[in-house]
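To illustrate the input format used throughout this study, we show a single complete record. The first block contains the structure-token representation of the backbone; no residue identities are included at this stage. The design step must infer an amino acid for every position from geometry alone.
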């Protein structure tokens, strides 16, 4: 191909790409508001069950309420009222919005969901406790139906840009220096930006995968804290790695732990306890037969948190409760707790 022909071809392609910058983008009509939320620490002490209600298809442009109920465990369905829930909504185009909401008195949280007209497909909604003292994770996929956004205006401006680019390229083709400068001004920055976004996306996902390979069995909060990534980014990449068959996960005690796909799940050894439960056992070693009030006062925790963890320890046979008059006192069980980890 002759140099002039190369310049003409490149000029048309580059100016065509540049013309897309002036295409007016249709507003997706989204009324989501991104709110700044605090980071969740990894000193997890308790676990929540977040249960979404099942939903039929939702029509784009309408408004509905996504309901989730928050409870402590499956045994007594005790509603939690004072722990905010962080919701992350991801639309079919990969855009994310976050909300932090408190539940009502019955433990229900209602999230206003208004998918914009033209943006149809599957919306993924993640929910985690927005409190450093609680762990838990749940997800629901809501299908939004309706007419997709029209692409006619984009095609129209694209055609107009092609015509303009063809005429301009004929005028500048004879000037080789100008053709090379045009590449440096328009094409190279566009190419570099696209490649940089791809590289960063693959880098973060590879970093997460490499961490799991090096630290099999780590849980969600530990991975997020170690790699310093946001909840939305980590959830997205973990889900992608699991779907593509690179990793697998299972719930162990109050955590969801992640393993390389080729690794066998380890056998459970001993009893897995949270940091707070280990602290409660240490208090019982120092103070013989404390009451629940003693534990609350000494550790500075709420009655709800103390009651929940004492039930867990009693159920696992590590702690025994005995009545002394009107008081309930707690003792270490006769069996050794050396296997606790």
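Output of the design step:
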């Amino acid at each position: 191909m002759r140099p002039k022909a190369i310049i003409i071809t490149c000029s048309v392609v580059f100016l065509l790409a540049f013309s897309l910058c002036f295409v007016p983008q249709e507003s997706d009509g989204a009324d989501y508001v991104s709110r700044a939320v605090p980071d969740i620490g990894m000193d997890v002490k308790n676990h929540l069950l977040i249960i979404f209600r099942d939903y039929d298809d939702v029509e784009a442009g309408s408004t509905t309420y996504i309901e989730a109920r928050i409870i402590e465990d499956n045994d007594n369905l005790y509603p939690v009222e004072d722990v905010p829930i962080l919701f992350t909504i991801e639309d079919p185009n990969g855009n994310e919005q976050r909300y932090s909401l408190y539940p009502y008195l019955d433990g229900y949280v209602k999230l206003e969901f208004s998918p914009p007209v033209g943006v149809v497909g599957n919306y993924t909604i993640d929910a985690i406790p927005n409190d450093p003292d609680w762990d838990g994770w749940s997800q629901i996929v809501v299908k939004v139906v309706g007419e997709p956004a029209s692409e006619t205006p984009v095609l129209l401006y694209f055609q107009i840009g092609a015509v303009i680019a063809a005429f301009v390229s004929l005028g500048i083709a004879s000037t080789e220096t100008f053709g090379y400068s045009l590449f440096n001004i328009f094409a190279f920055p566009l190419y570099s930006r696209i490649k940089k976004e791809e590289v960063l996306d693959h880098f973060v996902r590879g970093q997460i995968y490499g961490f799991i390979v090096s630290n099999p069995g780590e849980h969600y909060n530990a991975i997020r804290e170690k790699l310093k990534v946001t909840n939305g980014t980590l959830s997205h990449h973990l889900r992608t790695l699991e779907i593509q068959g690179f990793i697998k996960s299972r719930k162990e005690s109050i955590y969801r732990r992640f393993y390389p796909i080729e690794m066998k799940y380890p056998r459970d050894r001993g009893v897995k306890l949270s940091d707070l439960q280990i602290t409660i056992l240490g208090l019982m070693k120092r103070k013989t037969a404390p009451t629940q009030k003693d534990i609350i006062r000494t550790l500075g925790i709420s009655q709800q948190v103390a009651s929940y963890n004492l039930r867990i320890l009693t159920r696992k046979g590590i702690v025994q409760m005995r009545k002394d008059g009107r008081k309930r006192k707690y003792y270490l069980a006769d069996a050794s707790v050396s296997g606790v980890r």
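Structural context for interpreting the output: The chain is about 40% helix and 25% strand. Residues 176-214 form the longest helix (39 residues).
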